[in-house]
Amino acid sequence: MSAQTAAILVLLVSFMIMIFLRFPVAYAVALSSLFCLLYQGLPLTTICQQMVKGISSFSLMAVPFFITMGCLMGSGGISEKLIDLANAFVGWMTGGMAMVNIVASYFFGGISGSASADTASLGSILIPMMVDQGYDDDFSTAVTITSSCEGLLVPPSHNMVIYAMSAGGISVGSLFLAGYIPGALLAVSLMVGSYIISKRRNYPKGDKFNLKNLGKQFVRSFWALAAVIIVVVGVVSGWFTATESAAVAVIYSLIVSVFIYKGLDWKGVWKVLENCVDTLSIVLILISTSSIFGYCLTTLHVPSLAANAIIGLTDNPILIALLLNLILLVLGCIMDMAPIILIATPILLPIATSIGINPIQFGVMMILNCGIGLLTPPVGAVLFIGSAVGNVKMERVVKATLPFYLCMILVLLLLTFIPEISMFLPNLLS
Predict the structure, then answer these.
(1) How many angstroms separate the most distant Cα atoms in the chain?
(2) 392 in a domain, yes or no?
(3) Which of 102, 153, 276, 316 lies most in the core, judged by the most C-beta atoms within 10 Å?
(4) Alpha-carbon gap, residue 303 to 374, rounded angstroms
(5) For 381-410, how does the pLDDT look when each residue is reduced to its tens digit (9 = 90+)?
(6) pLDDT tens digits, 271-318
(7) Based on the structure, what is the number of domains in the chain?
(8) Does residue 36 form part of some domain?
(9) Domain limits at 262?
(10) b/e per residue, 191-230, with b = 16+ CB within 10 A?
(11) Could you give the 3-state DSSP secondary structure of residue 159?
């Protein structure tokens, strides 16, 4: 066995062992990198250098700003307004509250960018509301957690910023544009699945469609939806960088939450910022430790070895694309989203581009794959949150989610083999 092969085994095997032992991912990444460097006899100062290098990035500053924006808007009284807007839009259908849940997640996702925040915020309101109207609690929870993944695709998604950085600085604006149609397609597929189930179970309809009420609710929700417009238009038009637009969005969300919707007072703002610090510390520690891991992968030429291994199995681009999705889905079952993006992007992106997949298209594919992973045991964070918010056993939630898994995988396959779904808006407006 060569020294390179042994070092790779030390890195990957120690990492997987710690993951299965339920170490925190940041610790597993850092310790496996430490073991690898020790085995190679490299100076441990490399750890500090790579950690600093990993978070010393102007574009990376967009991540904490977007997270702060989502926390402020999510706590600022907009959830109810977005639910009312969604209800006016689709509540008249069979299974109307399920449709409201899905559409509200699309709106809210454009503000929070977080599936966990979506599930916790909207789920705490909508799941009891659906149960009171005659929907099964496991179905209500399943709709909530699956629709929350729309927010990962709809800008401004901080995970897209992390992917752009990991992929070597591709356009954040193009990634933002690429997420709109896939997010809408995911919403439509979940609505179709919900409609079929609602028909079979005789779930109720809402009030009849009223155009005047829709206009009224749109006006009430305008200030919340305008935050997304500021970010996306600002980045795509070139008025702001992603970081600058995120900073502007934080100021805007503070003004809207405190002075317009009045869902927060200044004491509440400080409490929200304290919660943001907890989230940001986790994200930034993951990014910094993953930088060491990425350094080890690069110096050991793991990306090229992985590419050769996969291409050695088959030269059929369809099978390679399916294999890439399978790898990401399996990783999603055992790891959280940010570490997968940080670790897998340098390895899998070259393989994807070698079979003609655009880096922006692959980014959308990776985000959706990771989103599905958030709903799968044993490490599905959103699955756990939904189970807790809905007060439903996780086993029942997983069983109720099975039809929606099929909807999500169908959308994933469409995104994989029809690049125009992701690339239409970036090609049109960039």
Answers:
(1) 73
(2) yes
(3) 153
(4) 25
(5) 788 778 888 888 888 998 999 999 999 999
(6) 888 877 877 777 778 778 878 887 888 788 777 777 777 778 888 999
(7) 1
(8) no
(9) 43-429
(10) bebbbebbeeeebeebeeeeeebeeebeebbebbbebbeb
(11) helix
